[in-house]
Amino acid sequence: MVEKQVLKKNRRGTEYIEVNGEIIVKRCSGCEEMLELEHFPNLKAGLGGTRSKCRPCLVEYGKKYNEKRPEYTKRYYEKNGERVRERAREYYARKNGR
Question: Model's pTM, two decimal places?
Fold first, then answer.
């Protein structure tokens, strides 16, 4: 079977490489690097079923976002702390089968 690699762009301008009709690599909108799809978190509606930014870029974005809004985060946890902790307990119990 002959593999045909094609560099394409979608309507929004995201570049990706397609092999035999299947997307295998796409460009991160954060760092602008071409990465394999396994480097992107899943998102059903996204190109190739993944988000537009790779995992390291999303982590960096989240840190910057939270640094900009420390007062909001502080007020939120003061107001909803018990609810957040309860949700974390339920998640931990579900994940660890307890």
Answer: 0.68
How far is the C-alpha of 98 from the C-alpha of 93, rounded, in Å? 5
Q: Which residues pair with 17 in a beta bridge?
A: 7, 25
Q: Which helix (H) or strand (E) holds 7?
A: strand 5-9
Q: What residues form DSSP beta bridges with 26?
A: 16, 35
Q: What is the pLDDT of residues 36-70, one digit of tens each?
A: 999 999 999 999 999 999 999 999 999 998 888 88
Arithmetic mean of pLDDT over the chain = 90
Are the C-beta atoms of 26 and 48 separated by less than 8 Å? yes
Output the six-digit token pair for 83.
């609810």
Print burial letters for 71-88: b (CB count within 10 Å at least 16), e (below 16): eeeeeeeeeeeeeeeeee
Structure token digits, residue 16: 């990706």
Cα atoms in the Cβ-side hemisphere of radius 13 Å centred on 14: 20
For residue 56, the surrounding DSSP H or E stretch is helix 55-68
